[in-house]
Amino acid sequence: MARSISMEAAGLTLAFLILILTISAASSTNQIQILNAERRIDLSSHIVKVFLTLKVENVMTAPASEIVLAFPPAQADHLALVKAQAAIGKKKKKSYVHLDVNPTELPDAPNGTKYFSISLLNPLSSGETATLEVLYILTHSLKPFPAEISQSESQLVYFRDSALILSPYHVKQQTTFLKTPSTKVESFTRVEPTKFAGRELKYGPYEDRPPYSFSPVTVHLENNSPFAVVEELLREVEISHWGNIQITEHYKLVHAGARHKGVFSRVEYQSRPSFSGTSSFKHLLASLPPRVHSVYYRDDIGNISSSHLRSDYRKSELEIEPRYPLFGGWKATFVIGYGLPLEDFLFESPDGKRYLNFSFGCPLAETVVDKLTIKVVLPEGSKDPSAAVPFPVEQHLETKYSYLDVVGRTVLVLEKKNVVPEHITPFQVYYTFKPIFMLAEPLMLASVFFLFFVACLAYLHNDLSIRK
Question: In the predicted model, is pLDDT for residue 81 greater than 70?
Answer without folding.
Answer: yes
